[in-house]
């Protein structure tokens, strides 16, 4: 009887020790994932900011250090979308070389190609045209890169998109084609929203 009680007490003691040790390790380990997430978040924030201003060296360094080249901000903008819209050719090259998804859109479905076409960056459009994306890929309003280029008379870009196979027959949600947009006086919302106040001057031409 005594032996059974002793074995029961020892079993209970072992169980308590296991629970205590498990709780201790759990508490000790809890901050680690949070720290990693914070570090990743900060690195991605710097990456997005560097892509916006075209700091190719910083973008390259952060990507090589492990920052996700597919990072997104609260509006869904990726480093590639920001770099393409703001005309940073070398930064776009670095990001494409890192294997980013050139076809990815923001929360409204706007892609890097749409942003470059909107601003008339023919050199960047040429790079993006070489990616395996549908040239007539549309955003949530049915607007394509050709529509954006046609609206502002970006003829070099229009020609490049046509050579790639962009169709002028495609119509957006409002029923307008690229030719209709070329004749209209009303501009659609820019594919990339204005930058924070510190970079306001850089985007004033898009509004």
TrEMBL record:
Lineage top rank: taxon: Bacteria
UniProt-listed SMART domains: ANK (SM00248)
Keyword Ribosomal protein: no
Source species taxonomy: Bacteria, Pseudomonadati, Myxococcota, Myxococcia, Myxococcales
Keyword set, alphabetical order: ANK repeat, Repeat
Comp. bias (Basic and acidic residues): 164-174
Protein species of origin: Myxococcus fulvus
Region (Disordered): 164-207
ANK repeats: 42-74, 75-107, 141-173
Keyword Repeat on entry: yes
Name listed for the protein in its UniProt record: Uncharacterized protein
PROSITE patterns per UniProt: ANK_REP_REGION, ANK_REPEAT
SUPFAM superfamilies: Ankyrin repeat (SSF48403)
